[in-house]
Amino acid sequence: MPKAKFIEPMLLLRTDKLPEGPEWLVELKLDGYRSLAIKSAGKVQLRSRNDNDFNKRLSRHSERAGLDAR
User: For 28-67, b where at least 16 C-beta lie within 10 A, e where not — what string?
Assistant: First the structure.
């Protein structure tokens, strides 16, 4: 099985009018960290949108979610 890898997330797009229709998904952007969880071979990596390691910084959150982020 191939190892999971980082995928660069879509960034915020500022607009005055939201698109409409069933093909659009709109999410609120709240202040804080945006992180990606990558699970591979039974381990979870927490990565920032710039591919920085968040495992230590967000270890408390991964533990609450029941993830092993070592």
Answer: eeeeeeebebeeeeeebbbbbeeeeebbeebeeebeeeeb
